[in-house]
């Protein structure tokens, strides 16, 4: 199975209940940002820039739980900022698990080894670690040397202690997909449980817009061979979302399915764009004119294909005629039930692969191009 049985059954039960109630808008995953402070200054991060005026504020555990309870979402992804520097992170995770939530802590893993003893493994609990490439590429994107190594040590420690670990990888304009494959090959040897990949969403607060995948065609080109990754690795993206990224099908944005809560309230309309903050999920849903968002409606949405807008659609609103819906439903079932098998033995000391050599398609190679770009843009830190 791709996820533990308890995760599959909780999700199916939740979806059945919401479908029977006939709810039009309901959340699937809540992005809970108890703080925006972070120990890193990653090049592509919008949060530390958009929320720099409130970077020292954080949400109390009580308010986080109130927000989770009122939204009713089955999956809570605690992000930020860096959630492992939130002073009450272990208490928050514990309370969410008591509420039978499926909990992800989305972390850069710099403090993972140190903080591990504060948590207990559970089939509902995942550390989702941010890695955007092999050592040189990742360290460059997070603007600090040694981050990749520390994250890998954190992964090893977490796996040894019995935790589930997944990896979040953002695909930028210069990302070499062959490097992503090598990264997954390597992380498989460490016993990683799954991978989530998404095209970079262009945060307006990030000045280096050129690092993002700008057009849909660029995104489709990047993801055209994603089937290969899908067959080999335990991707946690739905097959329907991956077909959308490849340009094989269209989906409508369902940003209301992945709402974000942070020190300012419920952020709308989506994880990427901020047109307002609301007091409750109900306010966000009822006061937002959803018909105004999405490609062809808002120019800011034109080339957006991020997972927080589109991946939940596979669960929430399988569209088309009866036969298409039946077939998609069957595929989603098969996707949940079957996944590429894990490495039979964890090989902690496997060497980190060398990045692929540049091809004719990317003559300078991703790393050299990025280095040049950052140096030109004046953001590269030694
Ligand atoms: S398409 Fe949806 S997720 Fe993407 S920017 Fe627009 S509202 Fe946000």
Summarize the helices and strands and which ones pair or pack.
Layout lengths: L4 H17 L7 E4 L14 H4 L10 H11 L3 E4 L10 H10 L3 E6 L4 H4 L9 E6 L4 H7 L5 H14 L3 E8 L5 H13 L4 E6 L16 H7 L3 H7 L6 H7 L14 E3 L2 E5 L4 E5 L2 H7 L19 H4 L2 H4 L5 H16 L28 H12 L5
Parallel strand pairs: 1-2, 1-7, 2-3, 3-4, 4-5, 5-6
Antiparallel strand pairs: 7-8, 8-9
Helix pairs in contact: 3-4
The structure holds iron/sulfur cluster (SF4).
Summarize the entry for a quick read.
Helices cover 38% and strands 12% of the residues. It is α/β, with parallel strands linked by helices and 382 residues long.
CATH architecture: Alpha-Beta Barrel
Shape: globular
Structural domains: how many: 1
* Main β-sheet description: 9 strands, mixed
Low-pLDDT windows of residues? 360-382
Beta-strand proportion = 5-15%
Strand arrangement in the largest pleated sheet: 6-5-4-3-2-1-7-8-9
What does this structure look like?
Helix content is 38%, strand content 12%. The protein is an alpha/beta fold. The protein has a single domain, classed as Aldolase class I (TIM Barrel). Helix 3 (61-71) runs parallel beside helix 4. The N and C termini lie far apart (43 Å). Bound molecules: iron/sulfur cluster. Iron/sulfur cluster is lined by residues 253, 255, 269-270, 272-273, 293-294, 300-301, 304, 306, 309.
